[in-house]
Design a protein that fits this description.
It contains 14 helices and no strands. Helices cover 72% and strands 0% of the residues. The protein is mainly alpha-helical.
């Protein structure tokens, strides 16, 4: 007796279609994501003569690849280079200081909003994000006047203050949501054992919130690393204090700089952020997708 094949139900059709579409979609997004970066790296390694002869080639000639463009980008300006090594140091100092200070302000603020009762507690969360209703250009003129009066224009310290003002509200908002997921019973047990409120934060809440701290810190770091408008506004007169975003803008606006050198500068700027994401990928994923309470 022959068995008839089961009917093509909606579930079977959807599974069959998804089985085909899933690898196709994954490959498409991988190509769309990696191809521009691959081409940028390839251009940075090719001599300008080879690029002029074969501008559309995606297959490199291993014998023609060179690191001379990177040497040109990193070499100091006084030696005829682009001085990106110094710019990287400036950007790392600004972004690192912004992360430390922003988290130092956001952690106690977010904990207070998520745990302590006070007047206007519910409205504070909305006020955190109110600053993002205003475009950066609206804040540029008042900040320029303020930092000029404080004699901080042209200073990396002034730039750090600007980035802190930009990032602390959203850092507070992100951390507040995570602190709210920590079971209150765990903290109450610490208080019963004799810990102060500060001790509870330091020994209980912060260790549980490490993934969220990493995610928030990376968010602040990337903003400070890539920001251009305020860096241009406050540092344009001080070439020795430029950040990498200003250095790259100078390369892209110069007709004397070869495309290969511009691409090398782009790789130099992008690589630290990519490495940071790879090194903290696990904690970053936890901080963005999960809470601290375990079932």
């Amino acid at each position: 007796m022959n068995r008839t094949a089961p009917p093509w139900t909606r579930d079977r059709v959807e599974r069959a279609v998804l089985a085909v579409l899933r690898p196709v979609v994954i490959v498409f997004f991988l190509v769309a994501t990696l191809l521009p970066f691959y081409y940028m790296v390839l251009l940075s390694l090719r001599p300008i003569e080879d690029l002029l002869l074969r501008p559309d080639s995606l297959l490199p000639d291993p014998g023609a690849l060179t690191l001379a463009t990177y040497a040109d980008v990193l070499r100091p300006v006084v030696e005829g280079g682009q001085g990106f090594l110094e710019l990287l140091g400036n950007s790392a100092a600004v972004a690192g200081a912004s992360v430390v200070v922003a988290l130092g302000i956001a952690v106690p603020g977010a904990y207070a909003v998520s745990r302590l009762e006070f007047f206007g507690r519910r409205q504070v969360s909305a006020l955190f994000l109110l600053v993002y209703l205003f475009p950066g250009i609206v804040l540029a003129i008042p900040l320029f006047a303020l930092l000029t009066r404080m004699q901080l224009r042209g200073s990396l310290v002034g730039l750090v203050l600007v980035y802190i003002a930009q990032t602390v509200p959203v850092a507070l908002y992100m951390l507040k949501n995570y602190f709210a997921t920590i079971p209150e019973g765990v903290e109450e047990a610490g208080l019963v054992d004799g810990l102060s409120r500060v001790g509870v934060i330091r020994r209980i809440s912060l260790p549980l919130a490490v993934p969220s701290l990493v995610a928030t810190g990376i968010f602040v770091f990337v903003i400070a690393w890539n920001e251009f408008l305020f860096a241009l506004l406050f540092l344009v007169e001080r070439r020795d204090r430029w950040t990498v975003s200003l250095g790259l803008a100078q390369l892209s606006g110069s007709v004397e700089v070869p495309t290969t050198v511009l691409m090398a500068g782009s790789v130099v700027i992008t690589l630290p952020v990519v490495l940071l994401f790879f090194l903290t990928e696990r904690l970053l994923s936890q901080g963005l997708t999960s809470g601290a309470e375990k079932g």
